[in-house]
Amino acid sequence: MDRPTALVPLHYLPLGARGPEDVVADPHGRVLTGVEDGRILRVHHPGDPRTARAEVLAETGGRPLGLELLPDGDLLVCDAERGLLRVALDDGTVRVLADSVAGERLRFCSNAVATADGTVYFTVSSRRYPLAQWIGDIVEHTGTGRLLRLAPGDREPEVLLDGLQFANGLAPSADGSFLVVAETGSCRLTRYRLTGPRAGHAEPFADLPGMPDNLWREGPDGPLWVALAAPRVPPLGLLHRTPPAVRHAAARAAVHVPYRPSGTTGVMALDDEGRTVHHLSRRRSGFRMVTSVCTAGGHLVLGSLREPGVAVCARPAAH
């Protein structure tokens, strides 16, 4: 791994609500996010703390996680409680696109992307643990994460990949030939081929120095940004090699212990060959558990499952 350079904080924007888990930028440089109480917010002027403000666009009635802006201006929302949603940002209308697969309720819908033909791909992090007990899945290493596809007009998603280790962030390649899936529990990114002779196959894309969360592509030709929610934990890797009964017992204990996130904050940018373009890190950060990153107004904007606001950092110079 290349040595990281400094992640430079500029300012912090409180939102009056906890847990802006995913952040995405719109074409006007505004940032959209979903918070713990179910609201979808739009942050204006995130680069200027003097004029920055947040407005409420909608309420999902659940817990919004991953977001994806659609070409028509609507928003795809992965809600950990309600499933895959479509939100009309002009009037706040919320419509459920899918809340189950093969008769099983979507317990932990995590992130989504849409392709030009209207197909929606989305991830489910765990089939055993809800969001409130996410640490249990990471410890037990259940491998119950999934990648699903919802074709235009369908009500029932199709399972494309199973057995993923806490499937999380999702992003397309620049040419649309494959998807990149973050497997938080294995500190890696996986490529799923959409076209070509290997369509339908999955393969390694990149091993990472930490646990990836949400992914965000910076424009059609820009890099793929990766939020690192935590650095690698060597003892956890050793635990993952123990028998299932041992991991299950450890997970049962872990969900009852308050989680203390690492003080090391990190984000990366990769190209479509899985090569590192940027690796930024900050030790002893006051803003912890970074679960998302996007670029807006020439800055990096960071989201977090735990913090009551977003952090704005300096964007690195182009290589």
Automatic annotation (TrEMBL):
The keyword Glycoprotein applies. Residues 113-195 form the Strictosidine synthase conserved region domain. One of its GO terms (molecular function) is hydrolase activity. Keywords: Glycoprotein, Phosphoprotein. InterPro entries: 6-blade_b-propeller_TolB-like, Strictosidine_synth_cons-reg. The keyword Manganese does not apply. Pfam families: SSL_N, Str_synth. Belongs to the strictosidine synthase family. This is Strictosidine synthase family protein.
